[in-house]
Write the structure tokens for this entry.
Amino acid sequence: MISNLIQRISALRHASFKGGIRPAPQKQRTLVSRIMPMPLPEYLLLSLSGYKEEHLSPVVKEGDQVLKFQIIAQHHSRKELLLHAPTSGTIEQIGTNHIRLTCDGQDTEVSQQSQQKAKMHSPASLIDCIAKAGIMGLGGAGFSTAAKLRLAARAEVEILIINAAECEPYICCDEALLREKAQEVIRGAEYLMLASGARSCLIAIESDKTDAIAAVRKFLGDSPVQLKLLASKYPAGDERVIIKSTTGKEVPDQLRPADVGIVVQNAGTARAVFEAVTYGQPCISRVVTGAGSPRRGS
């Protein structure tokens, strides 16, 4: 009985780490709003620069009319490194490092027949679907999600961590995403779990994100995905810190998380995977936080 009680108390503890700071969140004003789409601008500048030295080559020319979700650039050898048009319009200019797309305001999509869904949910078919959607990690580094999953599968990782920690002031896009799209993030996490071969999956989020936590708990049901609460302090969301906090494992500087049996993906990435597998939809956008006080006198 005592051992069971100790286990229950341990389960209630928030995953934490030594040190850290607790800056003022500054998220009250942004979290009162729901996630809203940005209005279409007059034009878009689309970067051709990828992760580190990966550069994409245009597959369109100036003057071409393109549709939303159409491939407009790709890597010369790595098929998963793609750039899809975020909306319909005209290719106005192709520079060394960017494509300028003039929006036509119609937001016309390519035909659904050309959008490739995963035909069956095997690890290989899921990774192929994710690659064709051009999904890059949405946690900041921009590394190819398909490449990361292939690495995880080869390393036979045991644990997948969905990183929903946002310990920096102002930033709250993942919290808002879980609050409104928890079911899609959980389903995407299940796809990532299958694709990577991980035996378990944790959605890690700070304990003070009460609305997001409630939404995740509502939709977990019989899912193999588990919820793990983190201490609300900075830098809880750092990849190596979150691994240490949730699993107790340390990743040496010279190694990658996969080398110790773990793969980490962002909550936004999980949602993008859900959209790719379910609807065959390429990744052309992400949730961002717009916050702060206006600058006066300028």
